[in-house]
Design brief:
Blueprint lengths: L1 E2 L2 H16 L7 E4 L11 H6 L5 E4 L8 H22 L4 E4 L3 H12 L4 E4 L9 H11 L2 E4 L2 H9 L7 E3 L4 H7 L8 H4 L3 E2 L8 E5 L10 H13 L5 E5 L7 H12 L7 E4 L4 H9 L3 E4 L7 H5 L3 E4 L12 E4 L3 H12 L16 H12 L14
Parallel strand pairs: 1-2, 2-3, 4-5, 5-6, 6-7, 9-10, 9-12, 10-11, 12-13, 13-14
Antiparallel strand pairs: 8-11
Helix pairs in contact: 1-7, 1-14, 3-4, 4-5, 9-10, 9-13
């Protein structure tokens, strides 16, 4: 299993537990990219705490967080990942979603004739993730998808329908099982900086990632989000650090400037949460603001109002909990005020599954991996 960022781990933790418990499987975790960098929420200690003590680290991120370093990091990761696969020779490799870090895993497994299993293919979004997701699909041999539309899209892309399975999204599993109440020391234990909310205070969560295909607009985009948030005076703000995509340095710099402003009395900043604590965080917020897929997936299941900004999640299936706005401070601010009023009034959506995706995936793995999975691609174009 390849885990290259905090979101990947959150989505497959339940599946990792199922694999670890079963004596028929030997679980090998490949930990790389931003998942081993402290400034992006390093996962090593979280994995150990969760009982996953054996994992291999691969260092492949080229510093700079721009378009060129993304490409170079992908190339370096192919070199390191191929070496790992050559030495360990896994019977199958599992990758999730659409991150550029996972494309190198898919390429390496494919060239070494190792069956590749892809979770969350067939979805539609903006940014470079759209290209990467479909590239991984064409390199993959088995597909576990989150929605009916995703399965239909993969079959239209030429994938054999016998190899495409509707399971739901694994991140919904954690949303189903996580305890919802915040402990009195919740924010203190998660080591935020700034003006941290009390456990019983109302707050908004902000997650603003770069849009890689609009790299030159990163600075203006984050300023619009910041200016909108600064207009909110009577509610606490919990702001999470961005991912490692091109443009994250630009966003991080503006967040550091914001963090050092002593006149701001209602904003706190956090690098990372464990999967369970992240679900607790968003399930208790008044509104989730930004461009994270968790605003589309988990939040729809948890009935959390969301203000989705920009085109990063463009055309992704969504529930009735989402309002879409452009990078305009007034649009963002007005949408937040509107969404806060909907708290507690939004119906739960099962669009991305019922919370049993990992159980379904694991049962399918047991059945399918008893046989030899063919790495010969047979496309069935309609």
């Amino acid at each position: 299993m390849a885990i290259n960022n905090r979101a990947n781990y959150a989505r497959v933790k339940s599946l990792l537990n199922e694999i670890k418990k079963n004596k028929k499987f030997e679980l090998q975790i490949l930990l790389g990219a931003s998942a081993i960098l402290s400034r992006f929420g390093e996962l090593s200690n979280i994995l150990k705490k969760d009982g996953f003590k054996k994992f291999k680290k691969i260092y492949s991120i080229v510093e700079g967080e721009n378009l060129t370093t993304m490409a170079k990091s992908t190339g370096l990761s192919i070199i390191e990942t191929s070496t790992f696969f050559e030495n360990y020779r896994p019977d199958a490799v599992i990758v999730i979603a659409d991150r550029f870090e996972n494309l190198s895993v898919a390429i390496s497994a494919s060239y070494l004739n190792i069956p590749l299993i892809h979770i969350q293919g067939g979805e539609v979004t903006g940014s470079i993730d759209e290209k990467v997701r479909h590239a991984i699909t064409k390199l993959s041999d088995l597909h576990f998808v989150a929605t009916k539309r995703s399965r239909e899209f993969l079959i239209k892309m030429g994938e054999n329908k016998k190899n495409v399975f509707l399971t739901g999204c694994p991140s919904i599993d954690i949303a189903l099982n996580a305890k919802s109440k915040l402990s009195k020391d919740f924010f203190k234990k998660n080591k935020g900086v700034g003006v941290v909310p009390e456990y019983n205070e109302k707050y908004i969560v902000v997650i603003h990632h770069p849009e890689t295909t609009k790299f030159n607009e990163t600075y203006s985009q984050i300023l619009q989000t910041i200016h909108a948030i600064l207009k909110l005076k009577d509610i606490k703000i919990v702001w999470l650090w961005p991912n490692i995509d091109a443009g994250s340095d630009i966003i991080s710099k503006q967040l550091r400037i914001l963090r050092e402003n002593k006149l701001i009395k209602n904003i706190s900043f956090f690098k990372n949460f464990s999967p369970e604590n992240y679900i607790k965080l968003i399930s208790n917020c008044e509104c989730l603001v930004g461009n994270s897929s968790s605003g589309i997936r988990e939040s729809s299941f948890l009935s959390i109002p969301v203000v989705n900004i920009g085109s990063r999640q463009k055309n992704r299936e969504r529930g009735l909990n989402v309002i879409d706005v452009e990078y305009n401070k007034n649009q963002i601010f007005n949408a937040i005020l509107k969404q806060i009023k909907k708290r507690g009034k939004i119906k739960k959506s099962f669009l991305y599954g019922d919370g049993f995706a990992c159980e379904k995936i694991f049962k399918l793995l047991i059945r399918i991996l008893k046989k030899n999975v063919s790495v010969e691609k047979e496309l069935n174009y309609l």
